[in-house]
Amino acid sequence: MKTLFERIIAREIPAKIAHEDEHCIAIHDINPQAPVHVLVIPKRLIARVGAAKAEDQAVLGHLLLAAGEVARKLGLESNGFRLVINHGRDGGETVPHLHVHLLGGRPLG
Ligand code: AMP
């Protein structure tokens, strides 16, 4: 069964896309916790950061580069922003497909 994000990547579910390239897609979160809340998602399924393997190294690095690029594109670079990755139940993970939260647009407590 596909994950929610695989279905978004396949355009089976609509999303507001902030960025897309060969390795990842970035979409605006449906339930934003800040004025800017974007999810940067690898196209190849990695369930969560603690399940990533050595062969995922380039994709993991790519997600951070893409998050920085999206932050610049959305005007967050000068005031700042936060990147968050939730792993597992206690981490608050709800979608079992790795994603980096990019949050900004207000001071974050
Ligand atoms: P996490 O709790 O770290 O697994 O994050 C999952 C995120 O996906 C949450 O912030 C949700 O608001 C977001 N989300 C759930 N469904 C959608 C959707 N259809 N489009 C965009 N974001 C979504």
Total helix count? 3
Order of helices and strands: HEEEHEHE
Low-pLDDT residue intervals, each spanning 5 or more residues: none
The order of strands across the largest sheet is: 1-2-3-5-4
Helix content range: 10-25%
> What small molecules are bound in this structure?
adenosine monophosphate
Number of strands: 5
Average pLDDT works out at 98
Q: Radius of gyration in whole Å, from Cα?
A: 13 Å
Biggest beta-sheet profile = 5 strands, antiparallel
Structural class by secondary-structure content: alpha+beta
Strand content: 15-25%
The coarse overall form would be: globular
**Span of the ends, CA to CA:** 37 Å
Task: Write a structural description.
The structure is a single chain. The protein has 109 residues and is of the alpha+beta class. The protein is built from 3 helices and 5 strands. It has helices at 4-9, 57-73, 88-91; strands spanning 17-20, 24-28, 36-42, 81-84, 100-104. It has a 5-stranded antiparallel β-sheet, with helices on one face. A hairpin with a 3-residue loop joins strand 1 (17-20) and strand 2 (24-28). The protein is globular and about 40 Å long. The mean pLDDT is 98. The structure holds adenosine monophosphate. The site of adenosine monophosphate (AMP) has 13 residues, from loops.
Question: In short, what is this structure?
Answer:
The chain has three helices and five strands; from the N terminus they run αβββαβαβ.
